[in-house]
Amino acid sequence: xxxxxxxxxxxxxxxxxxxxxxxxxxxIKLAAGVLVAYLALSPLLFLLQSAFTEDGEGGFSLAxxxxxxxxxxxxxxxxxxxxFALGSTALAMVLGTGLAYLHARTDVSGxxxxxxxxxxxxxxxxxxxxxxxxxxxxxxxxxLNMPFHALGLDPVNIFSMPGMxxxxxTNLASVVFLMMLAxxxxxxxxxxxxxxxxxxxxxxxxxxxxxxxxxxxxxxAALLTVVRALESFEVPALVGQRGGIWVYTSMxxxxxxxxxxxxGLVSAYAFLLVLIAVxxxxxxxxxxxxxxxxxxETIGGKGFRARPSAIRGWGRAAANAFVWLYIVSVVILPTAxxxxxSLLPLSQAPTLESFGAMTLDGYASVLTNAHVRxxxxxxxxxxxxxxxxxxxxxxxxAWVVVKGRGRGRWVLDQLTFFxxxxxxxxxxxxxxxxxxxxxxGVYGTLGILLIAxxxxxxxxxxxxxxxxxxxxxxxxxxxxxxSKANWAQTFRRVVLPLILPAFIAGWIYxxxxxxxELSSSIILYSADTEVLGVAMxxxxxxxxxxxxxxxxxxxxxxxxxxxxxxxxxxxxxGVQQA
Amino acid sequence: MSFHHGSRRLTxxxxxxxxxxxxxxxxxAGGASSAEQACGTESVAKExxxxxxxxxxxxxxxxxxDESPPTIYAxxxxxxxxxxxxxxxxxxxxxxxxxxxxxxxxxxxxxxxARAGSVAADVVDNEYNQLIDYQDQGLLAPLDSPxxxxxxxxxxxxxxxxxxxxxxxxxxxxxLDAPPTGYEDLADPRWKGRIAVNIANWDLPxxxxxxxxxxxxxxxxxxxEEWRLIVQNSVSFDGNTAMADALEAGDVDVAxxxxxxYTRHQAAxxxxxxxxxxLEPVLFRPQGIGITCHGPSPAAATLLADYLLSEPxxxxxxxxxxxxxxxxxxxxxVNASDGDFAAVYAGAEMLEESEFWIDQWQxxxxxxxxxxx
Lengths: 578, 373
Fold this sequence. Notes:
The complex is a heterodimer of chains A (578) and B (373).
Chain A lengths: L2 H9 L12 H28 L11 H8 L3 H32 L5 H13 L2 H12 L23 H25 L4 H8 L4 H12 L1 H17 L2 H7 L7 H9 L6 H29 L21 H30 L9 H5 L4 H7 L2 H34 L5 H9 L6 H12 L10 H25 L4 H8 L4 H12 L1 H16 L5 H4 L7 H11 L2 H26 L8
Chain B lengths: L2 H24 L15 H7 L4 H12 L6 E4 L3 H15 L4 E4 L2 H14 L6 E5 H9 L24 E13 L21 E4 L4 H13 L4 H13 L1 E4 L2 H10 L4 E5 L1 H9 L4 E2 L7 E10 L6 H12 L1 H11 L2 E2 L17 E3 L2 H5 L1 H14 L6
Parallel strand pairs in B: 1-2, 1-3, 5-6, 5-7, 9-11
Antiparallel strand pairs in B: 3-9, 4-7, 4-8, 4-9, 4-10
């Protein structure tokens, strides 16, 4: 710089100091936030417009909401929905958390098997998982009742609220297992070892040390499962209705197929579910802001290795009994029922005659079915794409929500959660509405399905990501910043590796549920974009139950093996086990 | 201006932009409703006006070759649609783009596309009441096909025509020592928990009540009381396929469902499902097709509609799907003139009473003890 320029600069007024440009880091975070806001708000605004107008037109009207709340069935619907959702959540939390703890923290035998079987209920499409339990637990002809007929008893009735809770709870336990496994793996076991060293028993250590350390993940999992259970369609439709038990999603489906369809009423019921989810999410957020903080940060500047602790004596026997009880009751029995149904051309109770009628025709038909092939290819593409986009997007957003500064971050967390409460069909209709009008050419392509899947599964990915973010201390990022790393570098090289177990768990979960997605896909697919869920639905509508169950079994095997393989492949990343 | 102040302003601006964009989209910016415009099939209709069937078909094939393949939204089963697609391609070298949907989903998708002015379907296949509703909303083009000459006048309208019937009967187990002899028999307590019903089949109690009025002189109140007793013996199901499956498995002994499940189950194996001697009346519920007013391929749509109403297509639907053709010359499915039972055909008259019967049937199913909530 020349002396004259130096002098000029020294004399320049302070107000002429150039404005700092917005950094690429800020733009990345903003872009992620805007995308999340758009994905969450556009279907929500459609729902509001439909629920709060008459016939989707005209000015604001409360007529639909009044119908919902003044229907003489309203108290029953609310009661049934609450009992179903809370009961399923409680069961899922006990099973999923217990299995995850045993897998991550103890030397219980057969860990590979535990991981695989824990995922099985999630790998089976909901309609088939429910159907398998109907084969097992129906009064009179159910497989589980048959041994008791000699005593004149019929103890199991799956068409009941306990039956519904059992099916939904065991199905959702897989979700809880994946979340809690990632959380336990990321917690420093040193505190538990300290407790044990100081004389605390295993149960006391579990309840007073282990569980509080993973509280963010537990609360996130509980929130997710409650809302999933409220939004559940298959179990209320296939099981609840036969027991005379109706919940909100039963009414939504009933009104949608009523003649003529009252779309405003459908939207009003859907809005009610979204409202419940928002309230629960707000309570969760408030609790996390008040109670959490450094107390649950277990990944800090000091390294640790998660070593599984040995369990001996009656504790080991109890642990093994729990695992095997889960495997038999939640995996082997429904899988056996699924296989049994897949080998029969017509439904029948197990007898010598039925075993004589078994055939592999269902499998042969499925493997040569062109719709299944097309659906499988499209579903795999969508699964990989949606899982990747979701987890990358929510990882950035989770950082902003948990670690960022500035007010209003909790709004972003709420927004990512909205879509989970949308009944699938309502979300599909909302996305249809939006993209029939937005001229970006996705209608009739896989693109619109991808948008639907990302919107729908974003809340699940977000729970994995935020739970993991809560466990990371700030000193590691500070160390990176001190070393002159920008936000993107810090995120990529410090944060992402630390949350990798949760990232992978979330990726696996989103990919698995993408493959079997139906309720939104049925509204959005076109002739060339048929997905596996639609192919299965067509088999069900056609009454091709043998083929349907064969496809369900094959899908389960492929998904579980794929998830197990992926988990083994990626287990070398993140926190290592001794 | 500080960095953080600028960053916050950018954040607020971006957030506002996202909300505004979402709002504009959700409020339906752009796209005139299709129902307000003239039908795209008018020009095709002028081209084929006055031609005999063979010349009409040839002209439509010529015009269709310049268009994209026709898209059909259908409630018909996949196996029947695949067979129809194969036959259509053999005849004309044009494939069908098939989208199978549930009754409600199809109606909602069509309505949304029409409102957005972006109808993707060329032909729709659904139940008669939905087709009449689409016709009344102006979503369908006038239907004038030579194939309609072979279809009863009662099951066609200005813009739709039935090509098959779903026949509602009482399916029952062949293992019963004493099968039901009439619908009123189902009110007997011996059937408690053994009858499968579907909330969507409101027209069956309507038809049976009319039959009781004619044959027994029962009033509507008496009929409703009888149905109340029947519903108390019943289990409510989500769909007709599930009902047939439950009957086959022995969960129930009677299913008020579609006759074609008897046909399909008998073809699949050693089925225990029977339906004859039939409980009276047997209800014939029309299903059919219409051409959308603003589909992308009007000539291909007209050709496809002609085909789907024709004898070869109805024969395929009957042989593959088990449905009963609307063309009475085709001897498949349930033939009312050959059968020893009273038959009722659902149509405009039944539709006039639909609001009453839908409400009554739903009230019975949702409010009876052990049902609903």
